[in-house]
Amino acid sequence: AQTVTQSQPEMSVQEAETVTLSCTYDTSESNYYLFWYKQPPSRQMILVIRQEAYKQQNATENRFSVNFQKAAKSFSLKISDSQLGDTAMYFCAFCSNNNDMRFGAGTRLTVKP
Amino acid sequence: DAGVTQSPTHLIKTRGQQVTLRCSPKSGHDTVSWYQQALGQGPQFIFQYYEEEERQRGNFPDRFSGHQFPNYSSELNVNALLLGDSALYLCASSFWTSYTDTQYFGPGTRLTVL
């Protein structure tokens, strides 16, 4: 069974600095997709970034980028130039072959002014 | 372009009652997935609907059932409510493909069981 582990329950960063959130997963699948979602206090789950496992190039989306290490089954999220609006819960998620999406327990990120 | 919508926003029920939650998918999407998110935890997959049929199901009892309508909207029904059913219920929509499409989430329905 696929599992997703986020080992950092809480993290904080100063505004304008860079922070990295960790995620590891376990699967026997060869073709799958990884996601980072952000859930602010408003509860809306918002897609931050997506990575296809068959792509070697790390995905980037403006200030957000990932470090995808397939052999190590690691998928970390780097947030550059952190902004107050980045304060939220961040969930790492795994999905294969349009199956159910598996989420980690989340990391609560606080951006301090 | 409307995103995923859910109703109601909040709901309070008592043990043993039944509840129905509703979801309208993002325009162009034909697949709806439901998740339960307990306080302080990540979402847990309940089931997924495509072409008005349940395609996949997570580890949830038969008290949890659903339906998808021809316009792709969906309902989640929970019978014989337990205190442990108190949670945020999230609906996500996507496009059914042979690979994995990104799921887009609605704002959720907060269910409180007293």
Features:
heterodimer, A: 113 residues, mainly beta, 6-stranded mixed sheet, 4-stranded antiparallel sheet, 0% helix, globular, B: 114 residues, 7-stranded mixed sheet, 50% strand
Structure commentary:
Chain A has 113 residues and is mostly beta strands. In chain A, 0% of the residues lie in helices and 51% in strands. In chain A, the strands form three sheets. In chain A, strands 2, 5, 6, 10, 11 and 12 form a six-stranded mixed sheet that branches. Chain A has a four-stranded antiparallel sheet with strand order 3-9-8-7, with no helix packed on it. Chain A has a two-stranded antiparallel ribbon with strand order 1-4. Chain A starts with a strand and ends with a strand. Chain B is mostly beta strands. Chain B is globular and about 40 Å long. At the A-B interface, strand 5, strand 6, strand 10 and strand 11 of A face strand 5, strand 9 and strand 10 of B.
What's the short version?
Chain A is mainly β. Chain A contains no helices and 12 strands.
Terminal CA distance of chain B = 37 Å
Given the helix and strand composition of chain B, which structural class is it?
A: mainly beta
The parts of chain A where pLDDT drops under 50 for at least 5 residues are: none
Radius of gyration of chain A: 13 Å
Q: How many strand elements of chain B?
A: 11
Assembly of the depicted chains: heterodimer
Shape of chain A: globular
Task: Output the number of helix runs of chain B.
Answer: 0
What best-fitting shape of chain B do the alpha-carbon axes yield? globular
